């Protein structure tokens, strides 16, 4: 009895082992079949799907901005930004805490030697995409060259000045210094404004205001050049620190320094009014320029912050004075 029983148990174990092997083999075969089938499907989809290289569209070059040429190679400036933060040097920026907001813009535009280090970043930001510099500010910029002429930010520098200072025949003092600076710091992107473009800026001011800046013994401010350049390269301009044209006429207007980085410097409104009223010597027409900027803000995508304001709407039966005659000179979008 024991022998047949043992024989039966052995047969049963063999059958169970065979069944287990069959299940394992069948599962492996089905899994391999599914994997192979999935692989074939993926390969088929990849053949049908265009490769990344085939669908990649070449990014268009930024448009050429006429009238701005490289100091060394004389190549024209190519630049375009969807949103720009145009940061003034006004004391109104102090304590505003707009730095992070400014740095979120695609391009950040600054003027002259306005700093971003030394604790100012919280209010004015850290980035600089474009810096517009007057010939009279060149020495101050050079004194702060370790901060302002830092090539790591890939900043574009545009210098403006009288044609006599920008001559290329060896007699242009500013031009010669800029070439030397760019030779010492070859990574800097340094551009100058051509004399033809300078004449266009003068003509634009005359058309918009009815005033010849030379007859009135005035110089266009760096703010005028910066705003006009921004209109050429930006789709939207957010201006920080610029007051409304009539701000200084308000009896209770807030007193701030002319420059945020010179807290003991002259009062901003006192500076604006003295220049606006000046008849002897050379002056800037700051308030007149701001009236033009307010008018442009009704046509272009320009917005003012810190302080926040918008130009008042015109009466329904009133049109922008000078719009028809000045339109061809206002920078056009390309």
Structural features, described:
- One of its GO terms (biological process) is oligosaccharide metabolic process.
- Keywords: Disulfide bond, Glycoprotein, Glycosyltransferase, Golgi apparatus, Lipid metabolism, Membrane, Sialic acid, Signal, Signal-anchor, Transferase, Transmembrane, Transmembrane helix.
- It is a single-pass type II membrane protein.
- One of its GO terms (cellular component) is Golgi membrane.
- InterPro entries: Glyco_trans_29, GT29-like_sf.
- The chain has a 9-stranded mixed beta sheet, sandwiched between helices.
- It has 334 residues and is α/β, with parallel strands linked by helices.
- Residues 50-55 and 321-328 have low confidence and may be disordered.
- It has helices at 2-48, 52-55, 99-103, 121-124, 138-143, 145-148, 173-184, 195-209, 222-233, 268-277, 286-297, 323-326, and strands spanning 64-70, 76-78, 81-87, 107-111, 130-134, 156-160, 189-193, 234-240, 302-305.
- The chain is globular.
- The chain has a single domain, classed as sialyltransferase cstii, chain A (Alpha-Beta Complex), CATH 3.90.1480.
- α3 links the parallel β3 (81-87) and β4 (107-111).
- It contains 12 helices and 9 strands.
- The termini are far apart.
- The protein is 40% helix and 14% strand.
């Amino acid at each position: 009895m024991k022998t047949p029983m043992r024989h039966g148990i052995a047969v049963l174990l063999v059958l169970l082992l065979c069944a287990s092997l069959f299940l394992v083999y069948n599962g492996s075969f089905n899994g391999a079949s599914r994997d192979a089938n999935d692989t074939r499907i993926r390969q088929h989809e990849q053949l049908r799907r265009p490769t990344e290289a085939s669908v990649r569209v070449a990014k268009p070059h930024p448009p050429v901005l006429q009238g701005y040429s490289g100091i060394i190679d004389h190549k024209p400036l190519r630049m375009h930004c969807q949103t720009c933060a145009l940061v003034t040097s006004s004391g109104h920026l102090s304590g505003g805490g707009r730095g992070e907001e400014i740095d979120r813009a695609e391009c950040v535009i600054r003027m002259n030697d306005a700093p971003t280090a030394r604790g100012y970043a919280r209010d004015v930001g850290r980035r600089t995409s474009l810096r517009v510099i007057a010939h009279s500010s060149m020495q101050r910029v050079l004194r702060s060259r370790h901060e302002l002429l830092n090539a790591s930010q890939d900043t574009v520098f545009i210098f403006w000045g009288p044609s006599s200072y920008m001559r290329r025949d060896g007699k242009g003092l500013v031009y010669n210094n800029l070439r030397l600076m760019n030779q010492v710091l070859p990574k800097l992107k340094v551009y100058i404004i051509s004399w033809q473009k300078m004449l266009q800026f003068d003509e634009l001011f005359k058309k918009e205001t009815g005033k010849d800046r030379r007859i009135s013994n005035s110089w266009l401010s760096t703010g005028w050049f910066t705003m006009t350049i921004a209109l050429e390269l930006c789709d939207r301009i957010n201006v920080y620190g610029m007051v409304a044209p009539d701000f200084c006429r308000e009896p209770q207007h807030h007193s701030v320094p002319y420059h945020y980085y010179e807290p003991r410097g002259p009062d901003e409104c006192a500076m604006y009014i003295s220049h606006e009223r000046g008849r002897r010597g050379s002056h800037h027409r700051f308030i007149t320029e701001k009236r033009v900027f307010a008018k442009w803000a009704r046509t272009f995508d320009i917005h003012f912050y810190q302080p926040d304001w918008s130009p008042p709407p015109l009466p329904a039966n009133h049109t922008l004075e000078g719009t028809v005659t000045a339109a061809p000179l206002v920078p056009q979008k390309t």
